């Protein structure tokens, strides 16, 4: 839970962002999400040329999934560590990460896949109507896209913001071709702080709408 001192620092940070951001295309809930990412990364590029890209139903579907207590499937434990625990507890949200599961490691080795790929593949059924959050591994995002195209899973929302030099940008481009709500960005930037910030922002939107 945020202390008064912590909240005052956050409020001041948000004011600085508003003062320095300049013109941008985001409004309403989308801006709340982008602003939260900038707050988490100190990188204004997420509102610039390589800014966030929202499917038209992304925010709506994300809010519905969180309000309904649906699963959140993440690619790495680093995302979990950055999620607001009070939100997860209050909304009874089940967060799943299998990157270190011995069964995943064994199967990935056997099939010559990455652990991130196999972790996604083995949780296909738990993804249905939930949110998939990829902040680190492009191979995980590519695997999810493949499973959606194979029609073996149907998440409510895919948040795909992996960071990196190999397949990160390409996986985000491919995500925009699926017939399913997504939030992503252009280029190599991204990461666990970015991914977690999107979920935290969605929870904040829910709380503000009910207060």
Q: State the low-pLDDT regions, or none.
A: none
Secondary-structure-derived class: alpha/beta
Mean pLDDT: 93
CATH homolog superfamily: Cobalamin biosynthesis CobH/CbiC, precorrin-8X methylmutase
Task: Give the strand content.
Answer: 5-15%
Helices and strands, in order, run as HHEHEHHEHHHEHEHEH
CATH topology: Rossmann fold
Terminal CA distance:
17 Å
Rounded to an integer in angstroms, the radius of gyration calculated over CA atoms is 17 Å
Sequence of strands across the biggest β-sheet:
1-6-5-4-2-3
Give the CATH architecture.
3-Layer(aba) Sandwich
Query: How many strands in all?
Result: 6
How many H/I helices?
Answer: 11
Overall number of structural domains: 1
Profile the largest sheet.
Answer: 6 strands, mixed
CATH class term = Alpha Beta
- Principal-axis shape equals globular
| Secondary structure: helix percent | 40-55%
Quick summary of this structure?
Strands 1-6-5-4-2-3 form a 6-stranded mixed sheet, with helices on both faces. With 211 residues, it is of the alpha/beta class.
Question: How would you sum up this structure, described in words?
Answer:
The chain has a single domain, classed as Rossmann fold (3-Layer(aba) Sandwich). The chain contains 11 helices and 6 strands. The chain has helices at 4-20, 28-41, 58-67, 77-81, 85-90, 102-111, 115-121, 124-127, 138-149, 168-175, 192-210, and strands at 52-54, 72-74, 95-96, 131-134, 157-160, 182-185. Helix 1 packs across helix 2 (28-41), helix 3 packs across helix 11 (192-210) and helix 6 (102-111) packs across helix 7 (115-121). It is globular.
């Amino acid at each position: 839970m945020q202390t008064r001192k912590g909240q005052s620092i956050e409020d001041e940070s948000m004011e600085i962002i508003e003062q320095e951001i300049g013109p941008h295309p985001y409004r309403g809930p989308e801006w709340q999400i982008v602003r939260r990412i900038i707050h988490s990364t100190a990188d204004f590029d997420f509102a610039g040329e390589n800014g966030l890209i929202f499917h038209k139903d992304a925010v709506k579907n994300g809010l519905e999934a969180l309000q309904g207590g649906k699963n959140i499937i993440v690619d790495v434990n680093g995302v979990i560590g950055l999620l607001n625990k009070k939100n997860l507890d209050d909304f009874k949200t089940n967060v799943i990460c299998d990157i270190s599961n011995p069964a995943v490691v064994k199967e990935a080795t056997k099939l010559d896949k990455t652990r991130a790929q196999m972790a996604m593949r083995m949780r296909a059924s738990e993804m249905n109507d939930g949110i998939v959050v990829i902040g680190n591994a492009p191979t995980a995002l590519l695997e999810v896209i493949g499973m959606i195209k194979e029609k073996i899973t149907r998440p409510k929302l895919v948040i795909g913001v992996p960071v990196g030099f190999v397949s990160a940008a390409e996986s985000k481009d491919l995500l925009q071709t699926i017939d399913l709500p997504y939030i992503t960005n252009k280029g190599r930037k991204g990461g666990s702080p970015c991914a977690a910030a999107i979920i935290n922002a969605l929870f904040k939107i829910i709380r503000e709408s009910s207060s």
